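Support reply, case 0932

Customer input (verbatim):
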Amino acid sequence: MKIKLLYSSLLLFIFSCGTNLTYHQINSGTYNSDAHSRGLGYQNDVLVVAGSNGYFKIQDLGTYARLDTTGIIAGIEDIRDVEVLEDNSIFLLNSGEKGLILKKKYGVNLMDTVYVEEGVFLDGMSFWKSEPHIGLAFGDPIDNKMHILKINSTGDSVKVIDKVPLAQDGEAGFAASGTSIQVIENTPIAYIGSGGCENPRLYFTNDFGETWSFRDTPMKGGTSNGIYSLYFWNENEGIIIGGSYVDSTDNERMCFYTGDGGKTWVERNKGLPGYCSGISGDENGDFIVATGRNGTYYTLDQGKHWKLLFHEAYYSVIVKENKMIFSGKGGKWSVWEYSGI
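Our regenerated output:
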């Protein structure tokens, strides 16, 4: 493991729209150069970075010295998503030939299998942190329907949801960062973005995942196009983002804003050079960050204008508690603090 700390001399300033945004890197490293890291989870100072071949890292950002664990889970293809819950239990989702969700407790070596199924490609998961302590995971269609799972946060109950619309030809999810699914706290609503088809769609539920409907989006369609990531700051307002991993410079119809839960859409591409695999923001949507092969960008006006944050490219991003957390190629990860929003 390689750790590097940057000091106050690297403090960066951005002046925009009357906002004084400052940010600086507080920690970064590479936990395994062979592990491309798309799985990223954070809660209560517990950071989990995970990726290909089962490699993972758990870092306590509160004390740094209290817990710093790097390991490997045998038999794992690629950990594409991580969820850290309020009780510090950690869920890890494998994407590959075998659908697999594991659970481990912070500070405990034991690993429990929550779900396993051959021939299922899982794309992402999201958990309600408040009541009713449940989560949702989804994968590419099985029997012509998106494969949606409802999971108890204890990890001892998994239900396959049947009331899901029929999929379009080629329609699937993207597991580029595990963030094309999101539950909305303090509501029974959740969203899933699709792609790989002519008309990428926004799936939604308003009963904690028991039944699903969809809304069409103007996102550009195609085999490699669609919704790679989404971020909603309340049940109505959010941004979907993506593009094409094949042509990462294509920025046509790859980012949209909705203010009514996907009934209508406004294009928000200005300033984005193309494909983005991850998006996240603060709880009010005042500061939103998107990242991908072309670098890392931010918006202070909910996507009306995007500006370069830095040139470094990542797969995944979390914005939370005045921190920006990233993971990417070659097992790299970094943590930044920001203020001034």
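We compared this against your earlier run and they match. Two observations from our side: The longest strand covers residues 19-30. The CA atoms of residues 33 and 330 lie 4 Å apart. Please reopen the case if you see a mismatch on your end.
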